[in-house]
Amino acid sequence: MPPGKTLSIDVTIGTVRIDGWDRPDVEITIERRAPDRAQLARVPIAIEDTAARLSVRAIQTENTTDPACRADVTVRVPRMALIDRVQVLEGRIAIEGFTGTLTADIRRGPIDGKSVSGTLRLEAGIGSVTLTDARLLENGLLRLRSFNGDVRLSLAARPADARIMALALNGHVKSDIPLTRRETWGPRWGEATIGKGEPVISLDVVTGLIEIKSP
């Protein structure tokens, strides 16, 4: 997985787990489940490896969304890898020990991350987005969004430099870091500029709670 090469993962139903490790290569494990062996064909696996991109797909045939036919994908990648797309219709996305660039979207289900940093854009349709022991990198970004669910961010260390923006259209904002707030009628908004005002933390929910925890 040379620098600059991108990884994408597309799954209809299942769990995608991303683990960062201190090796330059990628390990992919895919486990398919179905009511019987014949129905495994409804979740075909496609892996394409070119010089510029590694693509992993486990998409159900005929545009079906049968929860009985699922594919769980685990990838171990260099910590600073570039993952430009993870798309899951229903299931879960789990991330640990990753410090690179990641864009991930799940329509139904949670996103959970532990010991992460870098440039992370994580979005859930119906489900929560939770990061624990997260750190800010100088040129990084934490953009977390849920349309119907909570967004919870627990920082490993109190930031010396950051720009924090939190918006809850129908919900509340809780933060251990003092925020300038607007909590009258309508959307709840909180923001803070710490030090030089970067990197950026952007948290959004349509319906749900935003929670920021910091030492």
Describe the protein.
- The protein has 215 residues and is mainly β.
- The chain contains no helices and 16 strands.
- It has strands at 6-21, 27-33, 45-49, 53-58, 70-78, 82-96, 101-108, 111-114, 119-126, 129-134, 141-148, 151-155, 162-175, 180-182, 188-194, 200-213.
- Strands 6-7-9-11-16-12-10-8 form an 8-stranded parallel beta barrel.
- Strand 3 (45-49) and strand 4 form a beta hairpin.
- The relative contact order is 0.15.
> pLDDT average, as an integer?
96
Spatially, the strands of the biggest sheet line up as: 6-7-9-11-16-12-10-8
Low-confidence stretches: none
Helicity, as a percent range = under 10%
Give the total of beta strands: 16
User: Distance between termini?
Assistant: 35 Å
β-strand percent reads over 45%
Q: Order of helices and strands, N to C?
A: EEEEEEEEEEEEEEEE
Rg, Cα atoms, Å: 18 Å
Structural class, please?
mainly beta
Helical segment count: 0
Give a short account of the largest sheet: 8 strands, parallel, barrel
Shape: globular
Topology:
Elements: E1 6-21, E2 27-33, E3 45-49, E4 53-58, E5 70-78, E6 82-96, E7 101-108, E8 111-114, E9 119-126, E10 129-134, E11 141-148, E12 151-155, E13 162-175, E14 180-182, E15 188-194, E16 200-213
Parallel strand pairs: 1-4, 1-5, 1-6, 6-7, 6-8, 7-9, 8-10, 9-11, 10-12, 11-16, 12-16, 13-16
Antiparallel strand pairs: 2-5, 3-4, 13-15, 14-15
